[in-house]
Amino acid sequence: MKIVVFAPHPDDEVFGCGGSILKWIAEGHDVQIIYVTDNRVLISWGLKAKELIEEEIGDYIDLNEDQIAEIALKEAESAAKAFGIPQNKIHCLKIHDQDAINKIDLGISLSKEIIKDADRIVMPGDIGSHPDHTATHIIAKRAAKELNLNAEYYVYYSVSPIEKQIKLKTAEHRERLYEIMKLYKTQLCQKGTNAAWGTLKRRRSERFGVYKLEDMGKYDNF
């Protein structure tokens, strides 16, 4: 089975469905990741919002956004390889962080060739907490709809109707997932992300809303 995971930012694949990625790879599935944005404003936004851990940002404080983006995407590739995903199945769209909502058409055109033969699409829910997450949700759905892709659709970061929910047991993968997140050194400079990192060691399962192509538009998160 070909499974394509959409990550709005590098590290969303870890927090959104990382244990499941490890589970699917262990089961022998062909897992690929699409990183939609490049995390370029990670440091500049964090400084303005006072969300950075001061003792962790020394290596990045004087870098410009292009340099941060380059580092962040290298971290993403390292994390994907740590999951067990080969280089040719790691896809970086390189859309600027916090600008994906303005690049919907570009995201769709870049994604369609990757997902055209996928059996399962894994995407974030449209929960409105970040425009890049909303954009990624729209990109994944519209690309699939334009292809009329008869696949399974797994939605993470979402609240789904009980009849659409599944829970995958991932406890056996939590220690490895915690170690993979260590590769995101830039992300771990953020207070919230750093705090959430520790929760990966306690994760026992991951929940998804699971839908079909014909379900699009019938549910809040699909």
Would you kindly provide a written description of the structure presented here, covering whatever features stand out?
It contains seven helices and seven strands, in the order βαβααβαβαββααβ. It has helices spanning 12-26, 42-49, 65-83, 104-115, 131-147, 174-181, 191-199; strands at residues 2-7, 30-37, 90-95, 120-124, 152-156, 165-169, 205-211. The longest helix is centred in the middle third of the chain and has 19 residues, at 65-83.
Along the chain, the helix and strand elements come as EHEHHEHEHEEHHE
Q: What's the oligomerization state?
A: single chain
- CA gyration radius, whole angstroms: 17 Å
Helix tally equals 7
- What's the pLDDT, averaged over the residues? 96
The CATH superfamily turns out to be LmbE-like
Strand content: 15-25%
Largest sheet: 7 strands, mixed
Total beta strand runs: 7
Question: How far is the first residue's CA from the last residue's CA?
Answer: 22 Å
- Outline the low-pLDDT stretches: none
What's the overall geometry?
globular
Structural class from helices and strands?
A: alpha/beta
- What's the structural domain tally? 1
Q: What order do the helices and strands come in, and which of them pair?
A:
Blueprint: E1 2-7, H1 12-26, E2 30-37, H2 42-49, H3 65-83, E3 90-95, H4 104-115, E4 120-124, H5 131-147, E5 152-156, E6 165-169, H6 174-181, H7 191-199, E7 205-211
Parallel strand pairs: 1-2, 1-4, 2-3, 4-5
Antiparallel strand pairs: 5-7, 6-7
Helix pairs in contact: 1-6, 4-5
List the keywords.
single chain, 222 residues, alpha/beta, Rossmann fold, seven-stranded mixed beta sheet, 7 helices, globular
